Amino acid sequence: MTIVNETYDVIIVGGGGAGQRAALETASSGANVALISKVFPTRSHTVSAQGGINAALGNIDKGDSWECHMFDTIRGSDYLGDQDSIEYMCSQASRTVIELEHMGMPFSRNEDGTIYQRAFGGQTLDFGKGGQAHRTCPAADRTGHAMLHTLFQQNVKAKTRFFHEWFAIDLLKSGPQKVSGILAMCLETGELRVFHAKAVVLATGGAGRIYASTTNAYSCTGDGLGMVYRAGFPLQDMEMWQFHPTGVAGVGCLITEGARGEGGILRNSEGERYMERYAPIQKDLACRDVVSRSSALEMKAGRGCGPRGDYMHLDLTHLPQETLQERLPGISDLARTFANVDVSKEPIPVVPTCHYMMGGIPTNKYGQVLTQDKLGKDTFVEGLYAAGECACVSVHGANRLGANSLLEIVVFGRAVGHHINDHIGDIAHEKNAEFDASLEKALGRVGFWRQGGGGESIDEVIQDMKKIMQEDFGVFRDGKNMQEGLAKLDVVRRRLAHASISDKSLAFNTRLVSAFELENMMAVAYTTAMAALARKESRGAHSRVDFPDRDDKNWHKHSLAFEGDRASTRAVNMQPNHVDPFPLQEREH
Question: What is the Cα–Cα distance from 284 to 121, expressed in whole angstroms?
Fold first, then answer.
């Protein structure tokens, strides 16, 4: 097959909020921008975000401030977040929300016309001393949907070139630490195309499909992480996975934290509001890692709901009908469709479910991808950026606060665009022998799946991987189980070399796409298992029964995982640029 070459200033991989915000910033400045997405952009996973976007507007709480938001984010991260990046995100939050409002995003409103703000977990006033903050700006309970469509309309206006239903296969390098393009495949025809670029932005979202039970869409397979890992660059804090306390039992669909922000209550089989025992201050609006562990402990103690005691109840029956209709219409529909529940009359069955990846591709606050030299010093990968859930800035550290994810994608998508605009004039397109070698390597992967045959089905490999991750690397972890899980995962990983797909066609070969996605998921799963076993402490979402305490002396640092099972660490940045640092302290709930 003849391979077509195309040249752009900027290639963006991923059509969600981060990718579209970066595309809008660069395209609006006159750059020649192409956005590549394996789904139509408005079907990207950002569309499923429900509860809202955080910003200290002060529309409900007049004394709120971005500094308080910064403190909550740092504390919520269990002090693994980088304070310079958190400072940047929180200080830009109000400007970012108002910018979206001016683009036409239909936020929910107060009676005076200002943006409505609801309560969300881990959000406080006066640096934890002033009670619950109302900081989350929603568009009912379909905030991601409203945001994604708003950004898409703006990108159409800015004349961003969309390649939808194209799959990015691999990064193409023109030097040991320089990226100059990607190889991608058209899903409709099977055509392969080389996209040359001065800058490549990865905005491919999360990878929750490595778990058997997840709120993530089927498209969340860690594609950007797999590309970075195969290119020889590291992944950071991969042990940090958030389990959302309210996924619909047996289904996984998300019930937004906004349901509890509007007054919903978690109850056990005895009807008890059990979060009062585990988090007496914040109760149902404690951080997600705390609530998920509390629910798991209740089920373990025999107070789970249902015939098998394997879920909890989220009770909304006491909320006014007006609140359900105006603030939680999507949740009411989801509960009716997937749980056969009328939320005004009966509780929703919910269970902790894999939801969000705090780790990812390490970057600075401008989205520049970081790696390490042979001496362990941080260096940049020239021409490569990352933003959104696939990136690890790190603003979430060991635990993300609800509604900081939509904030992150637009703040850092915009920051990436700004940095590219400022520096793209200094970068030249480059094609050399190393570029050709990386292209040949990528084409070899394509040939393996297209021409191979006779091995076991990839379906068996996928299911075995998910089972191991669910059983051995879930809400609670211990060394013995993880050691066994890592060994089992290594065996499954090696089976990939002999797996095959039966479909050899070119047009809409979904089996070929699944094979590429499996390779990406396997990289994510294995680095998760390695990092989880190595971190001998409990911090945020990483909860080890054999090391129950946080160990700041030995483990207040980021973990790095390289291809070839090589591990390293990076220091946590505790120095903001404009305010005093927030020192380590114990979290209160």
Answer: 8
